Every structure is written in C-alpha cells, then in structure tokens.
Amino acid sequence: MLGEGILKGLAETAKNFAGSFVSKERLTTVEYPEERIAPVEAARVFPFLIYDGSDWEKGMRCVACQICEKECPPKCIYIEKSKDKKPDFVGKPQIYPAKFDIDISVCMSCQICVEVCPFEAIKMDNEFELATDDRFGGLLLDRKQLAKPNEYYHKIHPTEAAAVDAKLAEEKAKAEAKAKADAAAKAKTAADAAAKAASAPKTPEGGTGTPTSEATKPPEPAAKSTPKTEGGD
Amino acid sequence: MKDRATTAGANALEDWNRPPVFETEGEGELLEVSMGPHHPSTHGVFRMDVVLDGERVIKLKPVFGYLHRNHEQIAQGASYLAAMPYTDRLDYFCSLTNNWAYALAVEKLVGQAVPERAEYIRVITAELTRVQNHASAIGFLIQEMGASGTPLMYAFREREKILDLFESLTGSRMMCNYMRFGGCRVDPSPAWFEATRKVVAGLPKFVDEFEALLSANEILMARTQGVGILRSELAVNAGVTGPMLRGSGVNYDIRKVDHYGIYDRFKFRVPLGEQGDVFDRYMVRILEMRESVGILEQALKEVPAGPIMDPKAKIRGFRPKPGEAYGRIEAPKGELGFYLISDGGPNPYRYRVRPPSLINLTVLEDMCLGQNVADVVLIFGSVDIVLGEVDR
Amino acid sequence: MVGTLDQIFVLLKHWIVGLLPPVLQPVVGVLLSVVAIIATFPALFALTTVIERKGLGRIQNRIGPNRTGPLGILQPVADGIKSLTKEDIVPLNADAAVHFLAPLVLVVAVFLEFAVLPMGRNMVLVDMDAGLLFFFAIGASTELSIFMAGWSSRNKYSLLGAMRAVAQMISYEVPLLISSVAVVMITGSLSLVKIVDAQNQYTWGLPHWYIFTPWGCAAFVMYAVAATAETNRSPFDLPEGESELVAGYFTEYSGFKFALFFLGEYLGMFAISGLGTALFLGGWSAPFSFLQFVPSWIWFFGKVMLSICVMIWVRGTLPRMRQDQLMNFAWKFVIPFTLLNLVNVVVWRFMGEGWARWIVCSAIVVVAYVAMARIGMRSKKIAPRSYRYAE
Question: In this structure, is residue A174 part of a structural domain?
C-alpha cells in the first residue's frame, strides 16, 4: 500500500504515450475517409445478384425459385416470377425474376440466402457506404441495382469466385457429358428401333424424332441440373 | 414506507411534478433516484430505481425491457436455421458462443454428431470470444471508475485484432452466424490459423500490461475490495453462473461439469475467488483470460484435417422429430442455455433462451444494499451484462 | 547574466509607461501588467485544453483532435464558439443573482491569485511581503463560488455535489498550507519573491531548489497531491465525475457560464502549479547554472506546463477515488505526514550544514511515509490477493 501500484500504472501509460509516436501498434487510429482499411475477402454486407456476360437481364443466373425468399430470416427479399421465359446466358429459355427487391434496411447480412441458393445466383457484396437520405425507397434495391457482373464477384471475393466458377464449369461439363450419354443412348435406341422397323413392315412413325435432332439438342444449363441439397460446401 | 405507486390517482400531474421523496413514518427523508435508462455507465438501456438514505442504498429495483426484441417469438416463427443469425444478436459481444449454444441444443435434439475439426474450430473461436469479452468487461468496469477510458482503449485495441480474425473467417466482425447444426459454416484456411497464432502469441503480453496498469493499483483496490459482496450460498440459490459465481468461491464451470465439445482434451484451471467482491470478480476474469490463452495455444497446435461439417447434416428442410433438448455452454458471461421443444414441424414449438446476464442481475439488489451509491455503478459493472441478452 | 531578453517584458512596460505623463504612470503601469496576465493565461488555458485532449489520446493509443486546424490547435476556438452560442438556461427556481455571480466570483478570484506569482526576474505584479498568505486567502474564496453554484441551483443533486466538493477542498487546504509552511520556515519569509530568490543559488552548478532536499521532496509530493485535490482533478474529481449519480455543482449551468467554470478550474490549476513552482521548483531559476542565459520567464512557464502535463498524465492513468476514501486519505495520511515533515524541517534547520542532515532527514521521511501508510490506511484491509484454482 505504499503507492507502487500507482507508479507502475503511471509507467505503463507513459510507455503507451511514448510508443504512440514510434510504433503503429500503439496508435491504431485509421483516419477515415482519407485512410481506409482494405476490405477483407470474406466480408459480407448486403447481397447482390450475379449475371454472366455483359447483358444483366439476359445473363442473370437467378431463376426466381424463391428459395432465398423463403429462407431469409427477416424476410427482406421480395420476388415476383415472370410470366414468360427469356433466353438466358446460354440461350435456354428460363423463368426470370420480374421483380427482385431487397430491402437493405431490413437485411441483416446473415448470408443465409447465399447458402441456400442452388444456382449461385446471389452473393454477398462488401460495399457499405450506402447511406442515403431518401427514406422511402433509397434503401430498397431493385434487381437492376442489385445486378453485378461475375467479374465484379471475382474482384471482391477471388477465391470464392474461382471456386464457384470451377463448380459451375464442372457441373456444366457433367451435364454435357450426361446429355451426350443420353443422346448417345437415345440415338442407339432410335437406331435399334429404326433397324427393327427397317426389318419390319414400314409404318409411319411419329413422335420419336430423328436421332440427329436429339443429338443436337442444346445441353441443359449446368445450373439447373443438380439442385444443391444439403450439407457442406 | 409507502410506495409512491400506490398513491397515484386523480392528482397524477402533481404527483409527477413533486420531487421524488419516499414518505416514511418518522425516519427522515429518503431519496429516490432513477439511474438511467440514459446513463453513461449502464451498459445499454437499463434503469435502476434506487432509494437512498444519505449515501447508503436502501432499496434497488432494476427495470429493464427497453431492448426487448421478441427474439424467442421470432425464433418460434422462423425455421431452425433462420434463428441462428438472431442468436448472434443476443449477447452481441459474444456472438460465436451464442451460436455454439444454439447449435449444441439443436444437435442434442436430433442427435447430430460433429466432426473433430469443427469441434476444434468451435473451441478456438469460443476462447477467442471469451478473451475479448473479458477484456472489454474489465475495460468498461474501470471506465466507470473514472479512469477516463485508458484501460478500455487498451482492451479494445486487442479486441480489434480478434475481431479482424472473426471477420476474415466468418465475414462479419460481430454478427458471425458461423455455427451450423453439425459443424461450422466455413473452413478456415491455413493463413487464418497463422494469423490466429500471431494474435494469440501477443495476448499474454497484453494481459501482463493490463495487469501492470490495474491490479496493483491502490486506488482500484480501495474501490473494489470489500464492495458488492455476494455470498456463495446466495449465488448458488439465485442461479448465478459464470465469473460472478466463481468469484464467490463456488467451483462450477460448465466446461468441466458437462464435458461438452472437446474441452476434456485441454488442460486448464478454473480460478476461484474468496470473498465475492468486485475485486474478486475482476481478478477471476483476468485469470480466466490467461487460462483461455492457454487453451488457445493447445488447440491451435492440434487442429486435425477433415470435414468442417457433417456430410449427412441437413440445412434446408430441417424437421426434427418431436422432442425436447436443453443445450448449455459456459458463455463468457455465465451459463447460456437454449431449451427447444420440437413438434415435428420446421419451426420450434418452444424456443427459450436462458440468459446468464438476466439471471445474474437478480442478485443486484442484494449486492448493493448498504453500499455507497457511488459503488452501485461499480457493482453493476462487475456483473458484466449485455442488454441484448437481458431483454432478448 | 541579466540579459535584455530576460527582461524584455519589463523593459517594454517601462518604455510604454515612459511615454505617458507622470500623473498616469502608476495606473497605466499596473494596468499593463494586469492586461498581460489576463491575456496570457487564458491563451495558455486554450493551449492546455488541446494538449490535454491530445495527450490523453496518445496515452489511449489514439490521436486527439486533429481536424480543427493543424494538429487540432483551433479546437479551443471551436469549443469557445460552441459555448458562446449555446442557450443560457437558468432554472426557474434558481436564485438568479447568485446563479449569475458564481462563475464570476470564481474567475475573479483565480485571476487575483496570479498577482503574487513571480513569473520571471522582476516580473511580479505585486511584491507583497505576505504574498503566500494572500494567495491562500484568495484560493479559499474559490470554494465560496462552488458553493454559490450548488446553492443557487435549487437542485438537491447540485447541492450535494457542491457540499462534497467544498468538503474535499477544505480538507485538502490543510496539507497544502502545511507543506508551504515548511518552505516558509526555512526561508523565513512569506514573500514569494524572496522564496524564489533564496532558491536561485547554485552549488557546483546545481540549484538550491527545495525539491532537492529530503523535506522539500516530501513536502512537494504532498503539495502535489493536495493541489490535485484542490482543483478537483483526477483522481479526486468525484464532484464532477460523469458516471456518478450526483451530477455535480455545475449541472445547471450551460453555455458561457459553464465555459467560465471550466476556465476557472483550469486557471486554478495554473495558479496552484505556479505556486508550487515558486515554492519548490525554484520559480524562474534555471536548473543548471550554465543554463541561466535562457530567459527566466521561459523557465517559469516551462515548469508550470510540466506540472500540468504531469496532472494530465495522472488523469489518464488513475481511477477516481470515492468521497469517503478521499477524506480518509486526507485526514489519516496526508495531514499527519505533512505534520511530521514539519518536524523534519526543524531537524534540518538546526543540524547545520553538512552530509549528516541529509541522511537523517531522508531517514525521517522514509520512516514517516511507511509508518503513516501502514497506520493510516490499515483499517480497510486492502491488500493484493492471491487466488487459488479449483481441483
């Protein structure tokens, strides 16, 4: 009780005071907005929709399955399916979201929509300077504001984007291989049937279609082939 | 002693304007003061109605509920997965331990196993959370004592490093949403382990500096020793858990009692206080920080490779069979428990959180009776509550 | 070594006064000195607020204000504009005249304290024979203003805060006075000019400052503690603590009156540091004989600012003491120790020159300190503890 504790405390603060002039460790201020901390790769703020290619409407991966809308905890996603089908990035007619609104004043950045999306269509952005003084619609982002290209996704989350692209390419390859195998199998059965029919009395056929048209059917988009079920990534 | 509430009536406006004084039968005037909810040192929106006789506290009534957000009702209306991000926001300082407690409850409900790597990651994140929570709690306690925030800034400097680790792992500094039923959401990279090792290597030095600034400080000792004594019988009877209980000398740490996770594989000790005053609770937290650093060092050495999530676990379409489960962990603030009753549907039938901060607050009046009013703030700070947990 | 630079302000004053007719000369002479004091110390106050905030920031690993002007120098201007443009709220029940006068009494009293401080060679406003007595008499009237503030607000909490503040200040007046009495006993005069002159001698290049003597060192430490308590600075700032229940005597003040209280408190810090410098640190004398070419007023203000920096350092480190602990500390430790120090002074004086008295007096100081610490602070059973682990 002689005051040594106080002196030790004073020495400690003096050390910090002197240290704040010489080491970054003891002066941790980052003077925003002139200096900024580099965004971490895994950072998540609000979602955005990915599109492939350069046309955001055509290239959007989202097919309005509404799984993210159902799973979103605060229910901040509002989707309306389209009545028609538009051709997507690979040309196949797809349902697309006529409306896809996210209310980012409600969104709590939990990333569940990203986890449950089977089509890798919605990902987390890391832009946070979204303050606005328009309180009636400024924080309700529609699908045009939400659509960002795949290159942007590569820029902000490189490893994730590379993994996603690899997965999509793999699924696409698998789907193509499967379609080829199907086509080959179908062609084989059609050829067998044709051979059988050739050896049997000729009857007008309908419905089976020519082998060539089967084989040239464009492969299904990889995204639709294997819906993500459950479990780990 | 008449309570003013019983005399409210036709003269409500006059009652409101009259200065708050309890009328006593011949005892002299007692002063009733309401501390909060806007108060620099109530850790959030919390109110204490204190009745004073001079400088001594005669009665203390905590009033809370200002941060009630219907967490349990929301979780009962949402699916099991959707309740996970809401658990982050219970005790918003320690989101990862909240996640773990909930995941533990659900895993008990369905009998889900967790792979080893995930268990190690859970222990590492939980102990990191414990370190930063105790550092901040001590910082806030000393801040209320009037040290103009210096220890708080030091604590937050270390906390920033830990939060950076959480951000690079889970994507968010505080609202981590990281545990899933059957493992963890994201597999940490070797770079993350390197960064964690670096941070953990710097932690003992930080705790030493913190102690040098505070523990032998005579003014701190004079203000905290003998203040706010909580007897061990009262603590046990009231259901107090966590550093408050151990500060009163009761050996009860759920990590050692329940053997949940893989805590049995790590050597760590449980510090106990003697008298149950504010100084004991403060020192127990510092010693627990040191023990947590020990656990972290051991765990970081032995993390096995493997899956981060049980491949058979379901995320969507999760409908547990009807039943109930109570999963609890040693959260930094005490025993955090989740009680779930499932009726076979996608939402829980009943979802109940056992908030350690609220249960620990029930003994606030007993600790403050007879104390100086300047100490009420200190005693309250030593309980270490977070209003998100108290009010849910 | 009485250089022109050293006496520049004196020479300037003489020159201006010389320009005027003899009938006006005394009045204008005094007025010039008064204006100089009124100009310098508030400027120092402004500088101190910036230094305090930046110093506290650096202690806490952060930068202090740095956006208002380069290095935050213009922060006091911003604070001043803020205080001046705030609405001046006077409570309905308040005693308006007393409420208005309280900050004025504080500021006037504190400015009066500067009249007897020797700020340089030949640079004292009034060379009183009983300067020290005048200083303490005026210093006591600052407590009056605090009580006026608490009383006039008609607010139970303010009154409580004011009473606690006054009790604290009265208790700590005693060690302040007794430590100064030690200096007076050695010098034999109450005049601050003579006290500083007595310290302005050098032996082997080292000065005769009283802090370098055993009794002086003990008296200085107790003076510093008492000075921190007098000016309501941490760790003795319970009356104005933000996180305390009782909000303090200046709760009901806003705008410019609040700024005046703030100003009064800081000027009180300067005055008491100035007195401590004059009594123990040799006033305007240089630390080494070869440094006497540096002007004396630079030494004086340098030492005052050093004391202020130490006060800021202590504020950033130590938590606040509770009111009863504060009073316990004053009456059970500080006052007995200062009284024992008076005995020490007597021993020093009557042992005559030589090494012996150094050893004896140092021993008395150490024994007295340890004894008072053990006896005075023993009752609370406060000690470091060791902890056991389970199992």
Answer: no
Percent pLDDT > 90 in chain B is 38
Q: Is B160's CB within 8 Å of A28's CB? A: yes
Q: Which residues of chain A have pLDDT under 70?
A: 1, 89-91, 200-233
Among chain C residues, CA nearest to B150: C60
Inter-chain residue contact A10 with C313, CB threshold 8 Å: yes
Is residue B300 within 8 Å of A213, Cβ to Cβ?
Answer: no
Q: What is the CATH number of the domain that holds A131?
A: 3.30.70.3270
Assess whether B170 and B268 both reside in one domain: yes
Same domain, A155 and A96: yes
pLDDT at C246: 56
Say if residue A53 is in the same domain as residue A153.
Answer: yes
User: Do the Cβ atoms of B118 and B184 come closer than 8 Å?
Assistant: yes
Q: Give the per-residue pLDDT at A212.
A: 42
Q: Which residues of C touch B287 (CB under 8 A)?
A: 387
* pLDDT digit string, tens, across residues C83-116: 888 888 888 887 888 888 888 999 999 999 999 9
Q: How much is the mean pLDDT over chain B?
A: 85
Whether B267 and chain C come into contact, CB under 8 Å, resolves to no
Domain assignment of residue A146, given as a range: 47-163
Q: Are B43 and B114 in a shared domain? A: no
pLDDT, residue B306, reads: 87
C-alpha B241/C-alpha B252 separation (Å) is 8
pLDDT score for B312: 79
Contacts B161 to A, Cβ<8 Å: none
Same domain, B244 and B318: yes
Residue of C51, C61, C222 for testing the chain A interface, max A β-carbons within 10 Å: C61
The domain tally of chain A equals 2
The total of structural domains in chain B comes to 2
Domain with B76, as residue range(s), is 71-391
Instruction: Determine, for residues A27 and C61 on separate chains, whether the beta-carbon distance falls below 8 Å.
Output: yes
Of A13, A26, A31, the CB nearest to C317: A13
Which residue of B175, B205, B309, B316 to mutate against A (max A Cβ within 10 Å)? Answer: B316
Count of Cβ atoms closer than 10 Å to residue B314 Cβ: 18
Q: Taking a contact as any Cβ pair under 8 Å apart, which residues of chain A between 83 and 142 contact chain B? A: 108-112, 115-116, 124
Same domain for B303 and B202?
yes
ipTM confidence: 0.82
Q: Are residue A149 and residue A56 in the same domain, yes or no? A: yes
Torsion sign over Cα B313, B317, B318, B320: negative
Q: In whole angstroms, what is the distance from residue A157 CA to residue A114 CA?
A: 13
pTM (global) more than 0.80 = yes
pLDDT in tens, B287-331: 999 999 999 999 999 888 888 888 877 777 788 889 999 999 999
In angstroms, how far is the first alpha carbon of chain B from the final one? 34
Query: What is the Cα gyration radius of chain B?
Result: 22
Contact list, C317 vs chain A (CB under 8 Å): 6, 9-10, 12-13
The edge-to-edge listing of strands for the beta sheet with B334-342 is: B323-331, B334-342, B348-354
* Closest Cβ opposite residue C380 in set B40, B216, B222: B222
Residues B299 and B321 in one domain: yes
Q: Are residues A159 and A87 in the same domain?
A: yes
